[in-house]
Structure formats: C-alpha cells, structure tokens
From TrEMBL:
PANTHER family, sorted: FAMILY N-ACETYLTRANSFERASE, PUTATIVE (AFU_ORTHOLOGUE AFUA_6G03350)-RELATED (PTHR43233:SF1)
Cited InterPro entries: Acetyltransferase_Butenolide, Acyl_CoA_acyltransferase, GNAT_dom
SUPFAM superfamilies: Acyl-CoA N-acyltransferases (Nat)
Annotated GO MF terms: acyltransferase activity, transferring groups other than amino-acyl groups
Name recorded for this polypeptide: AttT protein
Domain N-acetyltransferase: 1-135
Length: 135
C-alpha cells in the first residue's frame, strides 16, 4: 500500500460531501454535514497528500448505542486496503470505548457486508430489520 496519511479528525464538510458522492453515496447539505461531522464520536480519515480518499465515522450516545457510518473510499483508491484500514481503526475505537451491553450497528451495502464480516459484524435478520426514514 502506498503511504497515506491517517487522521482521526473529521474532514471538512465539502470534502465529506464530495467523497460521499464520488463513492456513490447520497449527498448531504453543507449545514447537515457541518453539524453531523462536529458531533461524531470518532472519525478516521485517509489522505493522499491533501486529497481525502477514504473515511469512516462512529456516531451515537457514547455508552449504549454506537453506529458505524460513512465508510467511503474514492473509486480510484478502491482495492488498496483502505476500507479495511478504516474499519480496523473504527473497531479499535469500539474495543476501547464500548461497555457490556453496548450495541454497535451499521447498514451494509453489498459487497461491503463481506468487509464487515471480517471484523465480527453479523446480520440482524430475521430477528430485526434495518429501516430508515429519509428527509
């Protein structure tokens, strides 16, 4: 793997929005991105020089509930192990900051579900269903 710079600070709202769109994810408004990024429990960002190429975040209440979100890798950088690097760092955080009974969740789009399985994530179905309400 080429040398990349790993940071534990959220990216700028503009970089965040652009990476999400490039990775095929939904867009966010500048205001939503600014507020959401500021309220992250933990973030991992990966840069190639000054270009954001991968990221992931953990959100939640910091005790009972945690959610892994925003795992994104710029298409030109996919297949280089950056998604695995990001998830590994997020799991390290969770290993140190969760408690007995804490619940960690994520929504996985195929084929990313195979990445999360490598880190011990399991399917909730048929006991529960992932649901959402979009505004």
């Amino acid at each position: 793997m080429t040398d990349f710079n790993v940071s534990y600070d959220p990216p700028s709202p503009s970089d965040y929005i652009n990476l999400r769109l490039e990775a095929g994810m939904s867009g966010k408004s500048q205001e939503a991105a600014r507020i959401g990024l500021k309220n992250s429990l933990f973030a991992v960002t990966v840069y190639d020089e000054s270009t954001l190429v991968a990221m992931g975040r953990i959100i939640g209440d910091g005790g009972s509930f945690f959610q892994v979100v925003d795992i994104a890798v710029k298409p030109a950088y996919q297949g280089k192990g950056l998604g695995k690097l990001v998830v590994r760092e997020l799991v390290k955080y969770l290993d140190k900051h969760t408690y007995e009974g804490s619940y960690v969740s994520l929504i996985a789009d195929a084929p990313a579900n195979k990445l999360y399985e490598q880190f011990g994530f399991d399917y909730t179905f048929p006991n529960s269903y992932g649901m959402y309400r979009k505004f």
